[in-house]
Automatic annotation (TrEMBL), chains A, B:
Subunit details: Homodimer, may be a subunit of the RNA degradosome.
Residues where Ca(2+) binds: 69, 71, 466
Presence of keyword Nucleotide-binding: no
Listed GO MF terms: 5'-3' RNA exonuclease activity; RNA binding; RNA endonuclease activity; zinc ion binding
Keywords from the named record: Calcium, Cytoplasm, Endonuclease, Exonuclease, Hydrolase, Metal-binding, Nuclease, RNA-binding, rRNA processing, Zinc
Name of the featured protein: Ribonuclease J
Residue span of region Disordered: 1-29
Organism: Thermanaerovibrio acidaminovorans (strain ATCC 49978 / DSM 6589 / Su883) (Selenomonas acidaminovorans)
Any GO BP: rRNA processing
Binding-site positions, substrate: 254-256, 386-390
InterPro entries documented for this protein: Metallo-B-lactamas, RibonucZ/Hydroxyglut_hydro, RMMBL, RNase_J, RNase_J_2, RNase_J_b_CASP, RNase_J_bac, RNase_J_C
E.C. number(s) listed in UniProt: 3.1.-.-
């Protein structure tokens, strides 16, 4: 399998199960994705040569709207736990949640060293401090151009541009050949920090010969080139020039520190102070300034509570909430619920982002609320207030041509992105039998000769994290929550005497007609239950009788179909 | 109020409450929206002159994702019920759900005659047959150009183009002046049925002088002109030409009968049979053919079960599911769960629609599933496979210029659409004090002189319809459902002896850790509850004690926060 013909989609995980086990022909190179295939999120994969393994990234994913009460999703790494002894280290490409967010849950189990750039390490440390403050892993700071030799692997860190600073691709030399993982990238010719994607390094590897290329598929559906982050700065500049009288509120991703830097630069030129709003915005900027990724004088910043007191045209508010996140700075402001900042007709609000799929309604609601505050709002796609951090088709083509690999696997994409990126690679001359659309848990085996084949599967999947301890949470509970959410619940408790006779009944409902609103219904329910239990019977029979009789009564009163929970309380 | 400065958003309904009551200066013209302000959905408004009233449209709206278990939303029409005697009739602009969907719930209460075009009446009858088959209202069929005189109102039906045939605007003469309601419209110069928007009628009213204009705001954010429905036909034609070998599956809105007609025409040209899939697709096409809105020979159609048996290039499947609706034809096919049609690499699937806000993820999932079936899929915005049924900015400008009203109210839009449409009207010379951004329930009073003012409010709002009888359902239950959905529920039933002493305890959980998975926790819960109830106390005190002691135990075992429901069962 592997070619999309036989490919399987995230929602058909079993389609290719049991088609052979991972083969074991000794010293063979294997690449094993445990997340990030057929999904944009929880990126993680392992590269194995003989008894040695390295892991690349360890991300999280945010739950679908029907995953009620779930906070986040992390990859199932039992395969890595089983091979703990083999793992030499985890290499992180950059500091976005979908690449580092799984670490606080996974790293303590594996306890292997982490290799990443300074900023990425700083962000990982912040996350660990939140979730498992006591755990202190070993970090090795690396920078673009560095090479790390770990047993059979020689890992070269390569600079790439992305929507967060200090992002890396990895060129990994192994005895079987070179593996290139692009990480998330774009080819921004004039990045804000001057750190361009290192074409040279990619070309060099290309000349040397790359056995396997793993490339970012996020924007394969977008024609042309992704615009430079600089274009956003130009738009901001115009807005500052046009709205000299107004206070300017800019909402964007806290992790997009290049954009923050541009806001700071422009603010200084226009003699405005900057108020940072939103926990993560403050945290990212603090860290980035401490580590030297963002340069701005201390006196540029004012505390949020001072912003309302100042002349509108002397202030810029930089806030979170560009995705309409319920408790983010911008959303609280839009509802008039923000403690420090009240919006009004003196404000120009710029939403410097496009909605991530699934957030469209949240963003749309926020925009409506902002208008209702009397603000002017800039939010349209066509106004160049946001650019993506991912390469578009022309850039993806360029990268494939530079690297010219023997085998190609589209990563970091939903199924349709994988399929179209695979097609792109074939169009550019990568041999069809070397192009693989993979699913999480597939094992890609590569021979020295450059032949690749997906030969088996290892355990892979999603672990839901909610209030309960990680892992404890089962899907069955989700199903119950969905039922409760649909129709509510009706609990019927029956007290039984030692002889098993009914001594009393009490009922309660949640999310379903309450007793005080439907006295007749509840009266009849009680009578029906008592009647149903007249004859002596076992506990299970009783529960069934209670459900059956109650359902029968309900059906006559309403179309509602609540979960019915019978409780039998025996005399102790 | 009314100008957006003082405007209120859907989520701030109370903001202007109590600013004066509806004034009662005898024979005054009033326009009162009860739905469709600050929302795209459940359109309904009333026009009142003295003791006479007419109603325009009566739509429904689909629930937000957090309205758990709710099927649909309808407008609160208590104001109309109170004024039942005054209502001369309901005029419907066209047959879309957001304009007729409320009728089965509202019409029986008002029991007034309905005026609409033939197709619209047919669609209304189908809806009534589903919900209240016994109720038979009085229908008056009207057509474009007809004028209906009802007391002080003389209502002229005006042809407009939209994404469903036989749509109308209404020009309503009253003693106080002319009111123009555009309905949903676009200015398609070459509509499929040749029935163009009747510019002449609008111009004529404009010359005569229009007191109040109510205009469709849906696409006010879109620059330029909305493309003709014909462009979609051209794209289809190309796809048929390019994919002579494939079976073609087209998913679109069942109500877009012009599109269906184009599919039928092209299918005939390319000698393909048509299989209709999806309950509503079949119902709409049947009705439209019966009433003569769609022309296609009987032998063009084949039953869905024959489609898989035929040569792929001899078949077109026209199906529902363009919005990824869970049980629609396309989604069942994409999951391989459709009884009659199996998709594969011989299929070209065209999704002839753009996702309605909120449906993006459903559509995206469907596309991934289709790719995983091996289909070729055409879905991109830039491929001219769909056009909107609503006028874009240039068309809206043209309409305002034609009509040149004294007062203007943007209708059929979210708050930001209203604000921007209002701005557009002012830019085109409508006096600022005559432009109103209204909320549902606002009362706009108009004097002969052409002065307008929003002077009060009547009751308006949303009624949730779920399995329970309409109206019965309270928001408080929704809140409970959300809590249940978040953390699940833990029920603790205690049997009490006549002396109030605890005789037994039983517990059950849904959507939260089950007993068999957490024996210690449940054991400790039971002990804690028994202990908490040792001292004699009243029922409320007992319930509190149970909650308190259980919460305390839970907090030590998990971060989960289920609803805790204590039940006290007394000996009868």
């Amino acid at each position: 399998m592997g070619k999309e013909s036989g490919g399987s989609s995230p929602s058909k995980p079993n389609r290719r199960r049991g088609k052979g086990k991972p083969s074991n022909r000794g010293k063979e190179l294997k690449w094993i994705p445990l997340g990030g295939m057929g999904e944009i999120g929880k990126n993680i994969s392992a590269l194995q040569y003989g008894d040695e393994m390295i892991v690349i990234d360890c991300g999280l994913k945010f739950p679908e709207e029907d995953m009620l009460g779930i906070d986040l999703l992390i990859p199932d790494v039992s395969f890595l736990e089983q091979n703990r002894g083999k793992i030499r280290g985890i290499f992180i490409t950059h500091g976005h949640e979908d690449h580092i967010g799984g670490l606080p849950y996974v790293l303590p189990k594996l306890d292997v060293p982490v290799y990443a750039t300074r900023l990425t390490i700083g962000l990982i440390k912040n996350k660990l401090a939140e979730v498992c403050p006591r755990y202190k892993p070993v970090f090795h700071e690396i920078g673009a151009g560095d090479t790390v030799d770990l047993g059979s692997f020689s890992v070269r860190a390569i600079a790439v541009c992305h929507s967060i600073p200090d992002a890396l691709a990895y060129g990994i030399r192994t005895p079987a050949g070179v593996v290139l993982h692009t990480g998330d990238f774009k080819l921004d010719a004039q990045p804000i920090d001057g750190r361009t994607t290192d074409y040279g390094a990619f070309a060099e590897l290309g000349r040397e010969g790359v056995l396997l290329m793993l490339s970012d598929s996020t924007n394969v559906e977008r024609e042309g080139f992704t615009q430079s982050e600089r274009t956003v700065g130009r738009t901001f500049e115009q807005l500052f020039r046009l709205h000299k009288d107004k206070r300017i509120v800019i909402a964007t991703f806290a992790s997009n520190l290049h954009r923050a830097q541009q806001v700071f630069n422009i603010a200084m030129r226009y003699n405005r102070k900057v108020a940072l709003v939103g926990r993560s915005m403050i945290a990212y900027v603090d860290l980035a300034r401490k580590l030297g990724y963002v340069s701005a004088p201390d006196d540029l910043f004012i505390p949020a509570q001072e912003a309302d007191g100042m002349q509108p045209n002397r202030v810029v508010v930089l806030t979170t909430g560009s995705q309409g996140e319920p408790f983010s700075g911008l959303v609280l402001m839009s509802k008039g619920e923000h403690r420090q900042i009240k919006l009004g007709n003196r404000d120009l609000v710029v939403i410097s982002a496009t909605p991530i799929p699934g957030n469209e309604k949240l963003v749309s609601r926020t925009i409506n609320m902002l208008f209702s505050c009397g603000c002017e709002v800039v939010y349209e796609r066509d106004q160049a207030i946001h650019v993506s951090g991912h390469a578009s088709r022309e850039e993806l083509k360029m990268m494939i041509s530079l690297v010219n690999p023997r085998c190609f696997v589209p990563v970091h994409g939903e199924y349709r992105h994988q399929v179209r990126h695979a097609q792109l690679a074939r169009d550019l001359g990568v041999p069809a039998k070397g192009v693989f659309v993979m699913s999480n848990g597939d094992v890609l085996s590569l021979s020295q000769g450059g032949k690749g084949s997906v030969e088996g599967r290892v355990q892979a999947g999603t672990i839901m994290v909610d209030g309960l301890a990680v892992g404890e949470f089962q899907g069955s509970l989700l199903k119950e929550r969905r039922e409760l959410a649909q129709d509510g619940i009706l609990t019927i408790a029956v007290a039984l005497g030692p002889d098993g006779s009914v001594r009393g009944v009490d009922m309660d409902s949640r999310g379903f007609l309450h007793r005080q609103d439907a006295k007749d219904l509840y009266g009849e329910l009680e009578r029906a239950v008592v009647k149903a239990l007249e004859a002596p019977m076992g506990d299970d029979a009783m529960r069934t009788a209670i459900r059956k009789s109650a359902r029968e009564v309900l059906s006559r009163y309403t179309k509602g179909y609540p979960a019915i929970v019978p409780l039998l309380v025996r005399q102790g």
